[in-house]
Amino acid sequence: MNKLREILDEKCINRAMLSRKLNVSKQTIDNWIKNRNYPTMEHMKQIAKILDMTVLEIFFSEDK
Description:
CATH class: Mainly Alpha
Distance between the termini: 12 Å
Order of helices and strands: HHHHH
Oligomer: single chain
């Protein structure tokens, strides 16, 4: 999930901003980034929309 962190940094979106937009805690975002657990498919879709990317680009592609 380090790719999510990289994309957030590139788009100047911090974890607090993302957590507010998704209505989840900052700890939840941290857990996703640190691979402690994973977002639901619905959250993946919301993140993709916020970042103007596809779910595949963010969560399933291997090259950056």
